[in-house]
Design goal:
The chain has eleven helices and eight strands. The chain has 246 residues and is an alpha+beta fold. The strands form two sheets. It has a six-stranded antiparallel beta sheet with strand order 5-4-3-8-7-6, with helices on both faces.
């Protein structure tokens, strides 16, 4: 990797780490350890290319980056094949439905269908979330290699006051979620929001996850859990061989 490319991705990684929040130049300078003038020029180029957006609050990822991400054949095919299942699930339950993938030890939202209820789920397509505080993240983590699980368990920090940050408790949760085929979380990422998720599996394990998010008392019912698990199983079986093995 050339020095310029390394600096570019250092800046993008720091911006992406903030999720939905913009990051100021001073904060980015501190985190990337790049000279302020060098970083500013780089950010200007990224803004001109549409990869980064600039506002009074700072810098955030731009729409061009999402366009490029969605152009990745594997993710494009996954979204296309998953969409009919996601639409049926959203229509049946009426809550917000997500499709997410594991990327750089984060769960990235690949698709979102808004629910009909008044409970607002403040997620966005392309946003990145901790594996240990989201239902999709937990089910993907439960199916991850032991070294990944060990690394995540050693770096737990609260996202909300309800986030599980006790390694032993989270480890037991992951074992149960893997056995039951569904993961739950209640207000661990957003106050007032609960989620239930199930994995999409292929020959090499979990390749993605789907979830239903909304009022915890509604989405945590056994009926919703069973339905999410059933839809995930049907979708997993429908994935073409190339996608499931990728």
């Amino acid at each position: 990797m050339t020095a310029v490319v390394g600096k570019l991705f250092a800046a993008l990684d720091c911006i992406a780490a903030e999720g939905n929040d913009a990051v100021g130049l001073a904060q980015l300078t501190q985190r990337t350890r790049l000279p302020k003038a060098t970083l500013y020029r780089l950010l200007c180029d990224l803004v001109d290319a549409g990869v980064v957006e600039h506002s009074k609050n700072g810098y955030s990822l731009g729409g061009r980056l999402f366009e490029l991400g969605f152009a990745v054949p594997r993710y494009r095919r996954l979204r296309q094949q998953a969409m009919p299942f996601l639409e049926d699930l959203q229509a049946e339950i009426g809550e917000t439905v997500h499709l997410g993938v594991l990327m750089d030890e984060k769960v990235v939202i690949l698709e979102k269908l808004f629910g009909r209820s008044q409970v607002r789920v403040p997620t966005t397509v392309g946003s990145r979330h901790a594996l240990y505080s989201t239902a999709m993240g937990k089910i993907l983590l439960a199916h991850s290699m032991p070294d990944v699980i060990h690394r995540i368990l050693g770096s737990l920090e609260p996202v909300t006051r309800r986030t599980v940050i006790a390694p032993g408790l989270l480890s037991r949760q992951l074992g149960r979620f893997r056995h039951e085929g569904v993961a739950l979380e209640a207000e661990e990422t957003y106050a007032g929001i609960g989620c239930v998720a199930a994995p999409l599996t292929g020959p090499d394990g979990a390749i993605a996850a789907i979830s239903v998010a909304g009022n915890p008392r509604k989405v945590h019912t056994s009926a919703v859990q069973n339905r999410v698990r059933q839809v995930a199983c049907r979708l997993s079986l429908s994935l073409d061989a190339g996608l499931a093995a990728s």
